[in-house]
Design a protein that fits this description.
The chain has 173 residues and is of the alpha+beta class. 19% of the residues lie in helices and 29% in strands. It has two domains: 12-44; 50-171, Bacterial OB-fold (OB fold (Dihydrolipoamide Acetyltransferase, E2P)), CATH 2.40.50.200. It contains three helices and seven strands. A five-stranded mixed beta barrel has the order 1-2-3-7-4. Strands 5-6 form a two-stranded antiparallel sheet. A hairpin with a 5-residue loop joins β2 (95-99) and β3 (105-110). The longest helix is centred in the N-terminal third of the chain and has 20 residues, at 14-33. It is rod-shaped and about 125 Å long.
């Protein structure tokens, strides 16, 4: 019989190199390309966690400042002090609109506890044509709701409202 010389090859088989190359390519793609889902998560911002207002800028003293803002929601968190503004349409003693001399309007929600069974919904009796000094903080309307509650007669397109802590009411003479 004929003898066939068999020599053993030294080194690593080709398929091991193919697996190592595939792993290196996957790691490079992951490292250089990034995880798109993670980037999308970082770009999705929880609006409740952001305070964009410069509260050190002092209180807003006229409705025009709010109405002329490019994005009124950026003013959320700012304090507001309005003097001698007219009470406009009244939804209730707790929710109403105030107007300034320039025709600017701002929706107001008074920070007061309703008093069941009485015509006054709390400590204030708000009526149209009153003149009012009012102060509070601007808050953002979210999904058409205020603090998770839908206000039926809130003007359409309202982006911010005044959460008022104090009101000084006087009848128009």
């Amino acid at each position: 019989m004929a003898e066939i010389p068999v020599t053993k090859k030294s080194g690593v088989p080709w398929w091991v190199w193919a697996i190592v190359a595939a792993i290196v390519l996957i790691l490079l793609f992951w490292w250089l390309g990034g995880d798109d889902d993670e980037v999308a998560e970082l770009e999705t911002v929880d609006s409740d966690a952001i305070v964009v207002a410069d509260v050190d800028a002092g209180p807003i003293t006229d409705i025009t400042t709010i109405e002329t803002a490019t994005d009124p929601t950026t003013l959320a968190g700012r304090s507001v002090e309005l003097t001698a503004v007219d009470v406009g349409p009244v939804v209730g003693d707790r929710t109403f609109t105030v107007m300034d001399d320039a025709g600017g309007e701002l929706f107001v929600v008074l920070d007061q506890v309703p008093t069941p069974g009485t015509p006054t919904e709390g400590r204030y009796d708000i009526n149209p044509d009153q003149v009012i000094d009012i102060s509070g903080t601007l808050r953002e309307v979210r999904n058409g709701m205020i603090d998770g509650e839908r206000i039926e007669d809130m003007p359409r397109g309202t982006q911010v409202y005044l959460w008022a802590q104090t009101a000084d009411i006087e009848e128009r003479s």
